[in-house]
Amino acid sequence: MYIDTHCHLDYLQKDNDLKDIVQSAWDANVRLLHTISTRLDESAMIKGIADQFDNVFCSIGVHPNESSEVTHLSQTQITDALLAEVTDKVISFGETGLDYYYEHSDRATQHKSFLAHIDAAKHENLPLVIHSRDADTDTVKYLQSDSAQGVTGIIHCFTGSPEMAKACLDLGYYISISGIATFKTATQLQDIVRWLPLDRILIETDSPYLAPMPYRGKPNQPAYVVHVAEKVAELKGLPLKDVIDQTTQNFMNVCPKVQKNRLPR
């Protein structure tokens, strides 16, 4: 089975019936979906979506571009707020990290929020879902910090440098590949996929964004993660089944809490 490591079902439900989206994924053999939180005040909705489906799990967190939501809170208060939202279906914290491209939130608040997520991850022994855009140096610095020792997670929608990829691998993180890898212009990312060890690769859609070829420019959905897997197999010269099996196992390794739940067959 395939796993969509990172999707936003809350965004998809604005224009779609979620039952149809989840069924379409199931029909494409995408049997597990990890829907990702971007705001604390939407935690109940995110968890509610996960609770509707046996094969949907979720994160809890504050996207760096939404971290102005927690400007008024201390680092400890943010951590406590994250921990208060944990349930059986919450298997990660994020997406957190740093975004210096848009800077919708000031850097100091992004840094505070990032550290709070790291603290929550360490407390619950859950992985982080990391967003890093134009901030690779600082992202790695925080992941290498003493406070982050023993924490692992997923570098979502990877578009960073080879140096960033190596640093994250050295820290025990998994690299998640999105539909961007199918774009003709994504030559650096494609080269990185070629040398990444298969046992550290994950696949995702980031739906409704970044639809892979041949759907580029259209709304993305979890079923399309199949095309990401096919591209990874092509770039690495491997049988598709090897990519499917290993990326599924990789997700179970980084998010072991999933295995404590009764998964549908």
Automatic annotation (TrEMBL):
* Sequence positions that bind a divalent metal cation 2: 131, 156
Q: What family name appears in the similarity comment? A: Belongs to the metallo-dependent hydrolases superfamily. TatD-type hydrolase family.
* Gene, per the UniProt record: ycfH
Q: Where does a divalent metal cation 1 bind?
A: 6, 8, 95, 206
InterPro entries with a match to the protein in the record: DNase_TatD-rel_CS, Metal_Hydrolase, TatD-like, TatD/YcfH-like
Q: Does the keyword Hydrolase apply?
A: yes
The answer to whether the entry has keyword Hydrolase is yes
One GO MF annotation is: metal ion binding
**Record's superkingdom?**
Bacteria
CDD domains given in the database record = TatD_DNAse
What is the protein name given in its UniProt record? Putative metal-dependent hydrolase YcfH
